[in-house]
Amino acid sequence: YTTLFRSVLPTPWTALDMTGTPIQGASSYNPFSNQWLLTGSGQNATSTVSQGQFASQPWTTDGTIAAEVLSVTGSGSAAEGGLLLTGTGSAGTSFVALTKTGSGGLSFIWQSAGGSAQGIQLRRSGSPLYLKIVASFGSYSGYYSTDGINYTLLGSETVTFPGAIQAGLIFASGSETALGTASFTNVSVSR
User: Fold this and answer.
1) Cys-Cys with 108: which of 8, 44, 90, 154 at CB 3.0–4.6 Å?
2) Which residue has the higher pLDDT, 44 or 36?
3) What phi-psi label fits residue 174: left (phi over 0), alpha (psi between -120 and 50 degrees) or beta?
């Protein structure tokens, strides 16, 4: 016989579709394999018009969020999955993101409230891929690694968050008409 279980995100994690996401997505966590799966749609998870599935928890000021990206599948290179810290999840809010694209590239993108998104991109990142954002006194640094031990700094920026912050995993398929998925493991949040 087959044993089925319905995955629930661990406390205090919650999931939502970012504002304007065209097709409803979902987030799940499998405690037996320690894997997270985000299913979502949307053109862009990290811009002033963010779309996609976001599994997150409340964030304080300083700390580290990290994850190993197992896969990002969707509409080719436009799909992206990774880490996101955001003010409210609505358009125009402050955010810091570190994502892997469907083609394997990396992006470290940030925006202060009311500003425009800015970023640094790296064409190829290798596999496996570990991502980490370190926050310290308003400065946010994005790192990547192929072994989960030795990290390379991709970028660092000062971003002001005027209110509450959510931190977690983000995924957008790169399409407004099709779902895609991103899977993660070794997800950790420390403050």
Assistant:
1) 154
2) 36
3) left
Closest Cα partner for 173 from 102, 99, 103, 79? 79
Cβ within 8 Å of residue 2, ≥6 positions away: none
Bridge-based pairing of strands 165-172 and 80-86 is antiparallel
Residues 28 and 187: their CA atoms lie apart, in Å, by 13
Contact status, residue 114 vs residue 41, Cβ threshold 8 Å: no
84-105 pLDDT, tens digit per residue, is: 999 865 556 889 999 998 888 8
User: 151 by DSSP, 3-state: which?
Assistant: coil
Nearest one of 124, 166, 143, 167 to 68, comparing CA atoms: 143
* Measured distance CA(171)–CA(27) in Å, rounded: 10
Residue closest to 134 by CA, chosen among 173, 171, 74, 189: 189
What DSSP character marks residue 37?
Answer: E
- Report whether pLDDT(132) > 90: yes
pLDDT for residue 57: 95
Q: CB burial class (10 A; 0-12, 13-18, 19+) of residue 92? A: middle
Instruction: Tell me the three state secondary structure of residue 78.
Output: helix
Q: Which residues pair with 72 in a beta bridge?
A: 182
